[in-house]
Design goal:
Low-confidence stretches: 13-27
Protein name: TctC
Family: Belongs to the UPF0065 (bug) family.
Strand order of the largest sheet: 2-1-3-10-4-11
Number of strands: 11
CATH class of the largest domain: Alpha Beta
InterPro entries: BUG, Bug_dom1
Keywords: Signal
Mean pLDDT: 87
Radius of gyration: 20 Å
Number of domains: 2
Strand content: 15-25%
Number of helices: 13
Structural class: alpha/beta
Pfam families: TctC
Length: about 325
Amino acid sequence: MNFAATLIRACLLCGLLMSAACADKAASRQPVKIVVGFEAGGAMDTLARAFATQLSVRLQRSVYVENRVGAGGAIAANYVAKSRPDGNTLLLASPAEIFINPIYTRSQESGEVADMVPVAKISSAPIVLAARGDSAIHQLSDIAAAAQKNARGLSFASSGIGSLQHLVGESLGKALSVELLHVPYGGAASATASLMGKQVDLLFAGLAPIAPHLQSHKMHAVGIASAHRSKRFPDIPTFQEKGLQGVSFEYWQGIFLPKGASSELALFLSAEINNVIKETGFVDQLENTGFEVAYKDYKQFKPFLQAEDQIYRSLFKRDSFLY
């Protein structure tokens, strides 16, 4: 290891959280900002705030969450991609921000998002198809029957255009040969409120924001669009178990640094995140809100993302229904 790398590592281990290019005193005093592309109160926001609290303890620095809502997370991702790569700005992202939105929108800024530095995968959560407690839709087979009875068709809410929930909804409609009307919102909280307010018929969401409604029976789950059942709600079947193939996606969450961040910085943060997810209190908090720890470190996260990229590109190449 050369002198420059040694110096960088020493600064990072002292909690400065900076790359060599930006290693100045002003940066070392700045708080760390975790940017989320969805509104406060939603699943990603809930995770980000729990994570920020624990990361602040590890780094001995102030860590806070900033919500930059819009375009299915693209606004937040583009903002972080262009930020200074000094470790003071992080992105908490899901497949929507990293893969789906860039492919879906064909944005000129997607190249910068693709060049962000992956740090670590933190968690995953099931994508749930939910209906109101008084809805007649309890099975996947009920969707086609309900659509035929409804002159305006069936509508579903999601966290936004280009979100994973949007993709799942479109994929389900195609698989069932049913026209589903997509109604996008700024995040899971407002999408959930729209279902409860009878503005839409169905909702695709991560488990975290709708768990209380499932427990109170104000909503019921039709199925899970993930490969595995939820640990918290093990009675909810997956779509695959109901005989529906090709509508199974992992709703993962991970931390990214801006384009140009050093590998030393990413390695340091990855190690600190590993320490965070070993905290029993943090794990319990995640599981109580519907997330499950699914950690992959800096070295493991990159090949995981490469595999995910191929999955989504193949999907969009095969099915043009999102364009």
